[in-house]
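User: Could you go from structure to sequence for me? I need the amino acid at each position, not a summary. Structure tokens:
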């Protein structure tokens, strides 16, 4: 009987440091992942669908991730393994991205222990997800590891080759808590620029609203006016004339609606 495993070409790392290394994540390889899986070999041969027919060094975890995947190309299986790793260790990776070891010294012992464990696992998981494979030889042909693209993160003109450094820079440079920046980054199409701009627009608006309320409140007390009326009128004035400040709008309100009025404006009960 024909041995179908003979169809597969063994991948051998060109650099000794990568011997016995999982091509998908960089851990110690203990298994071989067949690309495509042997039960689909006949399908690929008969249909002439594109397939690599590689015997790929893999760790136990990546081997299990790919056990039921039908992909016939190495690049496709790399994507699946990375996606599964990222999903399984999402929480640990998030801890690694958000926390810096120097920031946990003041935490209670138990919490510090948990966060530190998360950082360690998250770092290892992040390195596995971003592992780029290695150059290899199969049946005398040399191949470069080009299955993982280099993602570049931009933060208002600054470029970073990994998310963690981009997040750290964005958080410190623009004074945004990391957890909040991650949330806004996700909500706004994975764009740091949009996230940072919207965050500061909201802060500016919040500061403006507090200033508006405080000044209008003082004005309404001094001139015995309804605060909602004063705030609404000031906002209308500022919308009509964008050069007006809260102070100049209040002055305009006084001159046009209060000073000239001979009938006292009563404050509603």
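Assistant: Here is the amino acid at each position, in order:
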């Amino acid at each position: 009987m024909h041995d179908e495993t003979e169809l597969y070409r063994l991948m051998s790392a060109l650099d000794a440091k990568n011997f016995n290394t999982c091509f998908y994540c960089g851990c110690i390889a203990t298994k071989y992942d067949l690309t495509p899986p042997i039960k689909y070999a006949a399908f690929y041969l008969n249909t002439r669908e594109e397939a690599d027919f590689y015997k790929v060094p893999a760790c136990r975890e990546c081997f299990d991730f790919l056990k039921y995947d039908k992909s016939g190309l190495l690049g496709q299986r790399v994507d699946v393994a990375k996606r599964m790793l990222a999903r399984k260790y999402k929480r640990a990776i998030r801890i690694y991205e958000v926390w810096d070891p120097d920031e946990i010294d003041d935490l209670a012992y138990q919490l510090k222990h948990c966060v530190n464990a998360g950082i360690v696992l998250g770092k290892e998981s992040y390195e596995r997800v971003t592992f780029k494979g290695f150059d290899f030889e199969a049946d005398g042909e040399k191949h470069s590891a080009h299955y993982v693209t280099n993602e570049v993160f931009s933060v208002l003109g600054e470029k970073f080759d990994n998310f963690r450094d981009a997040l750290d820079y964005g958080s410190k440079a623009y004074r945004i808590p990391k957890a909040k920046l991650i949330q806004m980054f996700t909500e706004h199409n994975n764009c740091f620029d949009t996230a940072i701009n919207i965050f500061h627009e909201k802060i500016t608006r919040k500061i403006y609203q507090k200033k508006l309320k405080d000044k209008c409140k003082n004005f309404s007390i001094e001139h015995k006016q309804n605060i909602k009326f004063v705030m609404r009128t000031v906002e209308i004035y500022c919308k009509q004339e964008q050069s007006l400040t809260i102070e100049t709008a209040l002055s305009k309100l006084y001159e046009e609606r209060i000073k000239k009025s001979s009938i006292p404006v009563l404050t509603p009960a």
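One structural detail worth keeping in mind: Residues 192-223 form the longest helix (32 residues).
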